[in-house]
Structure formats: C-alpha cells, structure tokens
C-alpha cells in the first residue's frame, strides 16, 4: 500500500506535481551549469579547476566524485520522471481530444512557449543525450585524440569545450536548442509555481517575471559559450 | 447582412459527421447568434430539411446550456460572454462562419451541435458539495466569512458549467471547471471539513471521465464566459498536494 | 381622486358565487403564528427504516424541485428526479438576479416575520391565502441558514456578516444576495445537495427527459409518462407521490424573460387529468426589459429593477417625436412617473410602472424604431454622482445593455419596455401543497399559492426554496404515512393507456407535415395573448382572444410542420408538444381574466379602474382564488372558487401617489 506523496502519480494533477518538482531540480541544475561554465571566460586554469572541484565536492567528508554521482543520479531520476510524467500526460490528453478533429481551431491565449512544451521537451531530451556524448564522453564531434578525458589529475575541459564548439554545425545546434530551452523555461518556471499551487493573482506578475529572468539568464549565458568560441573571443591553449 | 455558415451536421453519436454549408441571407445585426440560427432553421424546415440541433435555454448567459465553437473559438469572438449573448453585429457582411460542437472525448456528440456534458455532473457528484443536510444549519451569521474570502468564493462560483474550458483546452482538460468548484467551496469556512477529500475525489473522477490534464496554458480562462481565473487551478493543485501529504485517498462511489 | 375602497368583510366573496366552493384549503386553525408548528406536529411521520420503500417522483430541478428531491433523498425516500435540460443545474431559477427575502431582521430596522407576511399579502393585492404566506415568511429565516451552510457565497460586509439590501421598494433591508446572480448561487446550492444524493444512490436523475403525461390510478397520482429527448423513447415511471416543480408558463406569450424551454406541459397535462388550475390569468410583467428589435426576437432580457433607483423614466411630450434623445430639450420631455406619482416617482411597483409605459406608448409617444419603449435616463445621475459611481453600481447591467443593443447607455439613455416575467397562477394546491389529485404535489412557480395577484421582488426564490426544503418534506411524509407503498407497477392499464395517448399525440404531430412551423404558431399565440391578455385586459379583447385561440389551435393541429422522426433528438417535436399545450392554456387564461371582473395586482381590467386610471379591486365579489377544472371541453372548463379570508391583514387600496 502506498500512501501520501507516493500516490501522486495516480492522478493527472499528481503527475503534474511530479513534473513541477523534477522540473524544479532540473531548472536548478541548468542555472548552476550555466553559472559554472561562465568560468571559461576566466581562463583555462580557473575553468579546469572548477571541473576538478566538482569531483571533490563535499571533500573531505565525501570521497572523490561521490557527491557528483549523487547529483548525477538525482538528475537522471529527475529526467526520467519528468519525461515519464510528460508522456503519460500527453497520452491522456491525446485520448481526451482524440479522434475529434477541431476544424477551425483558433487559440486566443496559448503562447508559443506553452504550446511547444512537449516538442521542445523532446528536442531538449535528445540534446541532453547528444550533449553527454559530445562534451562529457567526447565520442562525437571530435577528431581522434582531440578530446581530453578528465580524471586522474587531468582536467583540460577548457580545450574540450573550445574544440567542441569550433565545429560550426554543432554550435548552431546548441544555439538553436538553447532558444527552445528558453521557451521551455519561460512557460515551465511559471507553470511550476502554478502546479504546486504557489501562484495567485498577487504573485502572478512576479512569478512571470522570475520566469523571464531565469530564462534570459540561462539562454544568454549558454549561448555566449559557443558564440565566444566561434568569434574567437576564447582560444584553445 | 448575408453570411455563409459551415455547420457541423451529425445525425447521432454513432454516425460520422461533416461540415455542411448553408446560406444565411436575412441576418440583422440586432439578432443574437442563436436567433440567426433560429432563422436558418425556420428556412430549413420549410425546405423539408432537418433543422440544425443546438443546445440553448435561458438565452441570457447564465444557464450554461448553449455552447458552439464559432470560428474555432468557444462562445465566439467576444470575450466574457456566452454564445447566446453574442450578436451578429460582431460579424462582417459576407463573412463565412464555421460552427462546430464542443469537441472532447468526455463530451460525446448527441446530434449536430449538441453534446452530452453529464461528465461534469459526475465530477460534482464526486465531491462538489458541502454535506449539509436540510435542517442541520446553524444561524446564517453564526460563522462570519471575511469579505475577501466571500468575494473570491463568489468569483469561482460564477462558473456556469458550460464546458467551454474543456472544449477550448488543447489537452481536453476540465481543470478550470473542477477548480472553480474546489475554489468556490474551499474559500468558505463551511467548506473546510471536506476540503481535501473533495479535491482528491473530484480529480480522480475527472481523470476517470477521460478529461485531459492541465498544462497551464490558459486557453480555458481566455474563453471562459464568466472569467474564472487560473488562480482557482493553483488552489486546486495546492489542495491536492496537501491532501496527498495527508495520505487522503479518493473515495469514489 | 380615486373612490375610497370600502373594507371587505370576511367571507363576503363567497355568497355571490355561481359555484359552491368545494375546495378545502386544509388551513390549520388557531393563531396564525402557531398554525405551521401545530400542523407540523399533527402531521404523520414515516419511520426512517420504511422510507426507502416509498418512491417519489420530482419533475423539475429548479429551486423547488431540486431542493425537494435533495431533501427527500436525504431523508431516505427513493426519489426520481426529471428535468428537460442536460443537467439539473440549468433550471431557470438560475436566471434570477436580485436576491432572496428573509425576515432575519439582521439590520435591526423593524423587520419581522409578521412584517414580511404583511408586505407579501399586501403586495399580492389581497389575493393570497394568509396561512400559506405566514408560513412562507416563517421558514424564510431557515432558508438563509441552510443556504449559508451549503456554501452559497452570499454578499458579506467587512465584518464577515451577511449583507442585506432593500429591494423593490421595500421599507426594510431584508434581501440577501450574491452579486447579481442570487438565483444561480441558490440553485447551485440545491444542485450540489441533489448531486450528493445522486452519488449516494437515493436520487436517480433523469436529465434531457420531458414529462408528457400524469398517470392517475384510482384517483391518485401514481406516475408519469416521459420522453427521453435523446432517444425519443416513451417511458413509464411509477411512484407513490408525484411532485411537479416545473416553473411558470410565461412562454405562453412567446416573448418573455423565461428560458426558451420553459413550458406548461407538465402542469397542463396534470390539469387535464384532474388538477385544478388556480388563477391562470395572474401574470407579472417586469418594467425594465430591453425592447424588442424585430421579428427575429426569440426572448426578452430583463435588467435588474435596481436601475430605477438612479435612472429617470421619460418619453417625448410630442407624439411621433423621432429626434434622438439628446436633441429633445428638457421642456419637451415627459417624466410621467415622477409627474403622476410624486412620492414614489420612478420607484412605483412593477405593475404600475409597466402599465404606465404601455399607456404612453399607446399614445404614440414610445421611443425606438418599434415605438415600444421608454427612456431610462442616467444623465442626471452621472452628473450628480459621477460616472465612476454609476459604473460601480450598474456597470455589468450597462455592459449587458450595450452588448445586446449596440448602444452606449452612458451616452444615450437606455430604452426599456415591460415584458412577461413570472406567473403567479399555477396548479391549485392546499396548505400541504397538494393539488386536487391526491398524491400530486405542486411547488414553486408551478403552483398558484403565496404571491396572490402580484409577486414582490426577491420573493420567488424564497417561495421555491421554502416549498422544496421546508414544506414538501413534511407534507409528503404526512401523505405517504397514510398510504401503503408500492402495490402497482408500470404494467397497469392506466400506464399503458397514458403511454398510448402520448405516443399517439407525438405521431400525430409528426405526420401532419403542414405548411407552418411551430414557431409561427407560437408567435401568433403570443401576440394574441400579449395584445388581449397582457398588461391591460378588457372584455371585448378577451372575447376576441377566446374566439381566435381555438381557431388557431385547430389550424395548428391541421397545418403544423414538425420535421424529423420521434426516435431521435428532435427539438421541433419538443417545441410542438409544448406549443400545443400553450394553445390550450392560453384560452383558459383569457377565460379567467374575463371572469375576474376586477383589477388586482398584475391583472388590470380596463373596466375596473379609478377615475385617474389606477387599478380598482372588487373585494366584494372577487376575493377568491379561481380554480378551474378540466371538463373535456377546452372552451367550457368548470370554475370553482376558493374564498379568501383576511383575518390579519385587512384589504386596503394600494396608493403610490
């Protein structure tokens, strides 16, 4: 018998709550990830030290990469739950409107961001896989031997990023995806508060504003990295 | 005014329907939209054709019986009114107007533009009430209700149960309807005893009826003739989370 | 000057009657304050364990029907509830705007049960039964408590207590309200209580189902014949008691403020089966409706009476003056209500305001394209109070007006005209709300009781809920306690016969395939009724109508065109059945109006007026309830009279000068 919060997945609203909570974790990650990466503008030493530092998080209480793995597992779980809830909800909605063509559907209010959540979501999901294969594992987008696998005292992620983004199509893919991530966050961040019941007329404008700020910071920050590489602002060492 | 109507015609729930074109040649701008359909129907009857079936009753925007997707918008182009309050001066001479029924799985089509909305009644049956049997009430002034609470309750209670929210929702969700009832009763002290059980039951029933889920798009509130706010949905969500934390399970009869 | 009206002595009315009154109102005796309590104690009860063995049919799901069905369900009876709408929440009670009266005296301004009773009897122009009205005033206080407990979001003051306002010229603030949607909120309260019982299994709901006949077995109402409006199936339902709460019959006029579906079929069919029809000619006309714009008009929209608090009513002094309102100088305007009734001015009661509007329009001074309208002008109030204040008070009404007419009432004066709004008449019932057919109860607007010849504002909601929550549950129990449950099923010959009649009628309508639509007949009937039996009635006109209506009825049965089939959703067939019944009721209304040779409340006989044109009652000869029996010949119904006694409120002439 499951009780309490563990029954959330049973209802549509509960699934949305799961999406909001996991979304909250993922937004936190995205913001932190962007912030960490801005260290590349402070030169190779700072940036590589940051990569090394992530692995010693919580030291000396936690061992090498322990907390990093905890974070990774939490993030993976969040992504899985977020995607699972989303697909279950999409299926439910398809059924609710299914088989009924609406001939002259004309939306009055639906923003592009709200309307494209599920498509943006799929793109972002595919992007995450690519991104991990690319900058984490180095198995795509690099010439042989160009990617420097971090670990064992070797943290040259600075050059990894720059070589990675010097590939123009890949950089463009990153930039385009970030625009979609922006849309996703623009609706998602506000929606998170609404779903958790933390929104009301009093706070609506504030929360819409917060969503815009989060979305702008993440998008501008993330796009600045490939742009900086492509324009030669930062160079490999 | 002369108009062209493209109207959804469907004999019953088990036969497929189609959009058929009819001329409406003698339209006065002072007519209401439904009076325009009345005129078209009078002509159809005299031509020996089956008139267009559509739901309507009070024709003053309060009973919630009338529906219609007019050019793809629930209750037509003007905000905060029902179809029966819409007048033909809102349209241009020569315009083509597409008229469709509410389309959502839990609103099966009965005939032409008439749909079955009993799913809404079943959501109310699940808990959209305060269990106060006749005779059991204390004096009306025994429990003061802060004016802002009474006002918020009234804002939500204005819902007429027309179904425009679910029909307009890209997800086919009835959340605005359900939330309006949850907020109406939840803002009042009298509604507190059953507050969390109510929301759990109503959400479970809403899902079981086959409505979609809410992705906070806001199309519902944009077409709502009574301008019910998305705040009500936030309140429902909040109540459901608290209910889940309390471990309240749905009791559905 | 009007002649002073002599006070009626008790029972004077009965002596001159052509028919011996055989109607027992079953009013309890004793002091009026104690009658209901005494009666409640004397009534028999049904043991809670036995209640589920009794089946009660409730037709109609508005305030009276919804409240009765829910309450009977709560008490454990087996209830079947029927409505023609797709949900019980849509009954036309929902459209009431203003409020609900209750003698709570929360304002400490001198209200009391007795005062509400007094005002209602007097407002009804002394044509209501005192005992019933007193009970209504008594239970009014319970209604508010019950509705608050159910979650009706009544307007509150900042301290959290219930707000009240004065309504319809009442001298105390006793009207409770929920914005301009009081009817909606009260109905939702009853609807929610009803849905709770449906979920509990004690009430079975049949929506989109229309009652087409009453089944009487051995002189008792034992069931109904219905048509499933989706499948067209004709069905039989058996019960131990039947409640009709099917609202008023204002749609006999075609144009009214009623919902399009409101009809008389249920009560009319019951009338044909033996229930007497009480005071059919008593109809209420509301003065502040939006005027008709053309032949396409399908219904009339009411705007709250509160508009008369700040609006000034006028017409041009000159006949046929077609200048826009703004170009008519002050000196050429006739503020006829202020002129004629200096102390009440624009706030005279509904019937007086309506009749005067008709009067000036009949003189050719009406405004608007049809000439049937008078101005309701807010220019002075806007000047005096400022536009924001007017927006705050009437914003939603002004928006509604602009939406319907396309005119801006802040710039040009509103145009208003009276419209049929409510019917005080209905099936005759005794103190127990039981009709002349044992086991047939009638509640709400469908019965004739409580309002006399004129209903006060905010009293319709009160009566519907009083009947449903607090009267029927007792009186039905009293009836059921005296009979054995069941003992009959739908295979009984009476059911078969009633079903065959209904099916035959339906088939006949479908087979005619004539040359005119149902609506064209309905419009014509409406016009006859409005012209001859509307705001003012006279013998010649009524006789004309009495000749014309039977002709129209025969034309209908020869030449109406009802398309489609019976076994499907067929809205024209539904309408046809209803119009067929209106065509019969209309005749009875005219006959009643002709018989009642006096003016009282909403019934204004031109022959009975004072020298300066005010309504003149005839308490000597007309202090009775007319109760019409169906004889099989529509043009020769039998009149019975229930004499009215006024022990507490002595009849007096209303004056608003």
From TrEMBL, chain B:
Keyword set for this entry?
2Fe-2S, 3Fe-4S, 4Fe-4S, Iron, Iron-sulfur, Metal-binding, Oxidoreductase, Tricarboxylic acid cycle
Concerning its family, UniProt says: Belongs to the succinate dehydrogenase/fumarate reductase iron-sulfur protein family.
What cofactors does the UniProt entry give for this protein? Answer: [3Fe-4S] cluster; [4Fe-4S] cluster; [2Fe-2S] cluster
Organism for this UniProt entry: Candidatus Viridilinea mediisalina
PANTHER family under this entry? SUCCINATE DEHYDROGENASE, SUCCINATE DEHYDROGENASE IRON-SULFUR PROTEIN
| 4Fe-4S ferredoxin-type domain mapped to chain residues | 150-180
Enzyme Commission code(s) on record? 1.3.5.1
Official protein name in the record: succinate dehydrogenase
Under the heading Pfam families, the entry gives: Fer2_3 (PF13085), Fer4_8 (PF13183)
Q: Is Nucleus given among the entry's keywords? A: no
Q: Which NCBIfam families match?
A: dhsB, PRK07570.1
- Top-level taxon in the UniProt lineage: Bacteria
From TrEMBL, chain C:
Q: What processes in GO biological process is this protein linked to? A: anaerobic respiration
Q: What name appears for this protein in its UniProt entry?
A: succinate dehydrogenase
What top-level branch of life does the organism fall under? Bacteria
Q: Where is the Fumarate reductase/succinate dehydrogenase flavoprotein-like C-terminal domain?
A: 522-656
- Domain FAD-dependent oxidoreductase 2 FAD-binding spans what residues? 56-461
PANTHER family reported for this sequence? SUCCINATE DEHYDROGENASE 2 FLAVOPROTEIN SUBUNIT, SUCCINATE DEHYDROGENASE FLAVOPROTEIN SUBUNIT
Q: What class of enzyme is it?
A: oxidoreductase
- Tell me where it resides: Cell membrane
A GO MF annotation of the entry reads: steroid dehydrogenase activity, acting on the CH-CH group of donors
Which cofactors, if any, are listed as required? Answer: FAD
Q: Which family does it belong to?
A: Belongs to the FAD-dependent oxidoreductase 2 family. FRD/SDH subfamily.
- Keyword terms of this UniProt record: Cell membrane, Electron transport, FAD, Flavoprotein, Membrane, Oxidoreductase, Transport
- Any one Pfam family here would be FAD_binding_2
Q: Where is the active site?
A: 350 (proton acceptor)
Chemical reaction(s) catalysed: a quinone + succinate = fumarate + a quinol
Where is it predominantly found? membrane
